[in-house]
């Protein structure tokens, strides 16, 4: 398993009229944690994209357990619990202290610069084999 934990402080602009975090912001925070997770294992998105590959989001799901509020200090965790083959499923949790606020998943696949599905670059497959021994 690989994972990254990223601290987030809720900005006023990230809340809605009801004073809770607008739902779309969770996806942005998921991206922050996901890209950090890949960077932490030596697979920064910047390199992957420079090599002509992209990892679009194919599916997303979120489950709201409790609301996040303005100025909350949160921790967003992204993790790969199983070795990816063609698709990459990333799981997420958002916590305020010990309180679980949101869980979610995203599904990704590699595409080339023309949008065609492709296998992951060899160095990604090698890194996944190394991490998921």
If you had to describe this structure to a student in words, what would you say it looks like?
This protein has 133 residues and is an alpha+beta fold. The chain is 25% helix and 37% strand. It has a single domain, classed as Roll (Thiol Ester Dehydrase, Chain A). It has three helices and seven strands, in the order βααββββββα. The protein has a five-stranded antiparallel beta sheet, covered by helices on one side. A hairpin with a 2-residue loop joins strand 5 and strand 6 (99-109). The longest helix has 17 residues, at 24-40. The radius of gyration is 16 Å and the shape is elongated. InterPro entries: 4-hydroxybenzoyl-CoA_TE (IPR050563), HotDog_dom_sf (IPR029069), YbgC/YbaW (IPR006684). Keywords: Hydrolase.
Q: What fraction strand?
A: 35-45%
Alpha-beta content class: alpha+beta
Rg, rounded, reads: 16 Å
Low-confidence stretches: none
Helix and strand layout, with pairings?
Layout: E1 2-9, H1 24-40, H2 45-50, E2 53-54, E3 57-64, E4 73-80, E5 87-96, E6 99-109, E7 111-112, H3 122-131
Antiparallel strand pairs: 1-4, 2-7, 3-6, 4-5, 5-6
Q: What structural keywords apply?
A:
alpha+beta; 7 strands; elongated; 3 helices; 133 residues; five-stranded antiparallel beta sheet; two-stranded antiparallel sheet; single chain; Thiol Ester Dehydrase, Chain A
Question: TL;DR of this structure?
Answer:
By secondary structure, the chain is an alpha+beta fold.
